[in-house]
Each structure stands twice: as structure tokens, then as C-alpha cells.
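Assemble and predict.
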Amino acid sequence: MSAAVHPLLRARRRKAALRNLAFLSPWIVGFSVFFAYPLLSTVYFSFMHYNGVNPPTWTGTKNWSYVFRDYPLFWPALRNTLWLVVVMVTLRVVFGLGVGLLITRIKTGAGLFRTAFYLPYLAPPVAATMAFVFLLNPGTGPVNHILGDIGIPTPGWFTDPHWSKPALTMLAVWGIGDLMVIFMAALLDVPKEQYEAAELDGAGSWVRFRYVTLPNISPIVMFAVVTGVIQTMQYYTQPLVAGKVASGIIGNSGQQFEPGYPDKSTLTLPQLVYERGFQRFDYGSACVIALVLFVLAMAFTALLMRRRNGFLSAED
Amino acid sequence: MSRIRKAATAVAASAAITLLASACTGQSSGSADDDAGKDVTITFWHGWSAPGELKAINDNVARFEKAHPNIHVKVQGNITDDKINQALRAGGSKAPDVVSSFTTDNVGQFCSSSTFADLAPFLQKSDIDPAATFPKPMLEYTQFEGKRCSLPLLGDAYGLYYNTKEFAAAGITAPPKTLSEFKADAVKLTKSSGDSYSQLGFMPDFHGYESTPMHVAAQWGVKYFDAAGKSQVAKDPGFAAMFTWQQDMVKALGGFAKLEKFRSGFGDEFGAKNPLHTGQVAMGIDGEWRAGMAKDAGMNDLAVAPFPVPDDQAATYGKGYLSGTIIGIANTSAKKNAAWELVKFMTTDTDAVVSFANAIHNVPSTLAALKSPKLDQDPSFKTFLDIAQNPNSTTTPPSVNGGAYQVTLQDFGYAYESGKAKDLTQGLKGVDTQVDKDIAQAK
């Protein structure tokens, strides 16, 4: 039998709870408006037929079966998105770390190299993508001219379904300035004594990197991977622009265009969300695709968190 | 750690779903009870953006304002269909009252979703008989399932552009009238240079700008849907004949890979370096606007003729694919009667239609304007006027999900021309199945 709580104590506890709630309220409001409500709405609309004009009507699992069974763009877009998550994120992290390592070791001209590697990150995505499409144009682009001159086979790049995603990956790797900066900060933060101790123990450069550098910067690597996965899940502008420019069909207002040129190879899930939701105004199937993206983003993040100590620092 | 993890997952989640957060919007009743005789300002959205086109549309609006001094028009150009669709769903005081679209593809979507108001009561009130006012194909592409939610605002006709200088050099004296003559001319006009071309007779690839399956298929007089609204591209023999002809042209002109490589070096379709302007391509299918663009780009060797027809349909020579700009009234508008005055003026006033057609070199969209003596008598323009009036000319029909069925057919075309899809019959059946599924999903 628990003793009865004194009314004064109860009032104090209630007051404390209200105060805590008041402090939490900005977060609660933000979470409810920008996370919980959209999430619940998305689930709700995924079971409705709704075109934004007429009232929504219940359709059961029709939208789900349409997306998974009858919508011909869904599976290619899913495959492309997963390909980009695995390949593009990995290469961006590897190159970002590699450039960061290189620049932290350069004795002279580090500032120049730092600027040179960071600048591409500042290029507007549409302009950068268009520039890449023109540079890699198989007919008139300078890259293929050079490759042809030195006897190397010339790929179709953005016009070839086998080369379009590698070409997009090249574009993404070109813009690794953001990762380079955070890796440089992390690398400069590794205690020098640990390197000295390792050297005294006879550790070579690879062993020093593997057992000193990597454990120290692993939280930053994890951060880069998780944010990279999330960004790649939202990859929209570059593949859309590349596909449209390379296809040659820029199009008039309202003109139909081929999604994911060439041969759906640049199609990503966010493009489908836009196409279903804001071009075809089939909010139901757009919500299904948005939920697939949500589940994928959660799954990747959870997997990565379980694989490693997550954002814990090395000494934790 | 858990806080950061939560933040990361929250970002991932919200990024995926906030795109769809504001789906619920209000709609007006669609009634028209405003007084068009009172002083009022309406908003008109259109897609034109080139300086000459903007001047032409603004001049037209100025003529309207002079005739209706109490109605003021706020004009907004360079508007795409995506923006129109989104704005008409959002509504609000800044939403447009009158909207026009460059394509007929989305009329089905505009009408079935009721984002555009039904114009039948307005036409009746103004005593306008659409059948006696507008050409038949234009009447067809501005309504959906009996609901007239838009009217034609000038039209587009597609024909054959050919380079007279290159024709003369090849010893060709007249434009081809049948597809077998066309093939022979295209081969004669093609000059290979290594693994590319110094001159190509015709770019048959479906990415060759306007040489899309829909534009070319019009020469076979195809029908996309049966009476029940089901896709019938596998049943209509015109589609199979068109794809077979296109593949034959691809083979005759050097093969898909070589053509695609050459195509990738083309300049922008609407820029000065269009391959018809540069002489890289000797013949091409295109709309009436190309003539003016070519002259602006300094190309004066292009002449125009109707696009050739299949040999077994030689009697129908003169037909072509038709499309056009459409105009309607936003259902969210609270000033529909005033908006109707502008729509009526722009679509049915003969002088307004003729002046606008002459200014931007589009095909006039009323029967009276087509016969007007004030109409530009330029020979190339005259060719397109004839194509527009040819009873065998056709267009792509409106559909509940816009041009989705065209994208499906186009996708199959890309797969077939590249060799990825090999079975034409099965492929066309697949197109029918997919189109029907997409329409069922949209309903």
C-alpha cells in the first residue's frame, strides 16, 4: 500500500510537469506540425484517391498495388536510388576523406588546393549538371575527343543507360568540398601523441591510418555516411536535369517528356513523388512512394547505427 | 548519441514526406455571379516568353482592354502546366482567373478534375455555336468526355521542312509525297563521314525533337482509344505500320547507334543551332513556328510541304498532326463572367485571332479567321493553314491523366528503336495494358 501523496507535493509535481512541458512545447509543436502530421497524413492519403480538387475517397490498397505491381517506373527508380546510395555515397566518402588526408599533409599551397577542391561544391546544381552533360557529350564534348585521341573507347555517358549513373557519380564526387572540410577538421583534431606512440611502436602509415586515424574520425565518417544516404534518397535535381538535357527534349510548357532518360536509368524515387503528386495529381500513389522512401531512409540509418558505434567518439 | 540519431531519423522522415504535407486545399463552388459590367481586374496566365510573343499577347490584351474599359487584365507570362495545376488547386486571391496552356495533352486532366470551369453555359449565354465557330479537330482537343472546359487559342500544325539547297544539290526537284519517296530522298540526301554524317537526310529517332511517335503516327490516321475509352494501339494497324516504317528508316540511314551519336551533337531545338537551321539535317517534321525561327537564325533555304503519307494512303496527302494552345477559366475564379469576356474576345473575335496569328505565326483557331483576307499570305504559312483545315488531319485525344498514355507509347518507341524491345505486337499489347491500368488508377 503506497502512502497518500500530500496535496502540496502533488501540486508541486504538476507545476514542475507543466514547466517541463512549456520548455518542451517548441519542440512538440515543431515535431507535431513538421513530422507527425505529415507522416500520418501521408499514411492516410496512401489509402485514398485524391487529386487535390475533389474530396478524398477510400480506395483501400489500390494505390499500393498500383505502385508495386502496375507502375512501370517504380522498380527502375528504386533500383537506381539504391545503386546511387551504395555507390555514390561510398565514393563520395572515400574521395572526401582522401582529399582531406592529402590536404592536411601538404606543406605548401594547402590553401590553394583547399579552395580548388571546395569551389565545385558551391556551383549551383543545375549549372554544374548542364556543364557536365556538355563536357561529356559523346558527339561534341571535349572529354570524348580527348579519350578518342589517345585511343580509349568513348562512352555514351549521359546518353547510355550503362554510363549515366557513373556519370552522375562523377558529378557528385567532383563536388566533395563539403565532406573534405569536415574530414579535414576531424583529421586535424586527432591527438598527435597517438601518432607518435604508434610510430615508436613501428607502425607504418597504413597501420597508423587504420588504428589511429580511423577510430578517431569514425563518428565523422558515420555522420558523412548517414547524411550522404539521406541526401541521396532525396536526389532529384541532378538526374532530372541530366536526363532532360541529354535527351535533347527540353520541352515546352506542359509538353510530355521521357522520365529518366536514357532508358529510365536516371530515374529516382523523389522524381516519382513529384511526377505522381504534382504532375499527375495522384496524391495516393505519391504518398505510397514517399512512404517507401521514408522506410528506406529509416532502415539505412538504423542499419548504419547498429553496424558501428554510431556517433560515439573513439574513447566511448 | 540517441538525440543525434533521432535528429537524423527525423530529418530522413520529414524529407521524404513534407513534400506532400499540404495536400488539402479548398475549392470554390464554380458558380459565376460576378458583374462583368463593373470595374474589375482579372489575372491571365500564359506560357509565352519570347519577346516577340510577349508583345503579341500584350497587344491582344490591350485591344481587349480598349474594347472593355472596365475590365483590367494583369498578365503573367512564362507559366508551365505544372504551375497552372498547382495554382488552381491552391486557389487564393492571387490565383489566375484565365489560364492558357501550350499543350492539349492536359485538357482531360483540366476538365475531369474541374480545375477549369465548364464553358458550355458561357457559350450558350453568348449565343456561340462551337461547331460553327471552331475547326473540328480543335473542338475535339479542347473538350473531354463531352465537357467543354477550354477553347482553342490558335493552333499548331506539323509539316515537312526541307532544305531547298540540299535538295537541288542532290537533284531532287520536289518534296516527297509518299513515304517510299521520302525514304529514297532521305537516303539520297545522307552523306556519311566516318562513323558520323556530314549531312543527314532525316533524323528518324524518336528523340529527334519533333519526330515523336505521336506526330508521325498522325500520317496513318491512327485512333488511340476505342469507343469504350480503352487503349487500342495494338488493334489499330496504323501504329504497327508506323513503328515498322520508323525502324526501316533507321536501318536505311545508318543504324540506331550511329544516328544517336550524331543526334547527341545537335544544338538546342528552340535555339539558333537547331539541325534544320545548320543544314546538318536536310528534312524534318516540325510545327509552323519553325519557319520564323529558321529565318531569325539566318537560314533562308527551308521550304515547307505536308509531311508524306503512307503509299496506300496517297490520296490523303496534305494531312498532318494538329495541336495548339488552349485557354480556359479557373474554377477557383470569383470573376468568371469578366474572365469569360477575355476568353470570348481572344478566341472568337476574328480580328483579334487574325492579328495574334499573324504576329506569332500560329494557325488561327476559328473558321472565320482561317478565311480572313487579313491573314498572312506567306507561302509556308499557307501550307500549315491547309494542313490545319485538311479533314484527314488528326490530333492526340485528351485523357483523364493528361498525356500519360503518350509517354507510355513513346517509352515503347524508344525501347523498340534501340532494339531493347523486339516483339512489336506484344509490345503494343503491353502499351494498351499499361495505358488502361494508368487510366484506371487516375479515375
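The mean pLDDT of chain A is 89.
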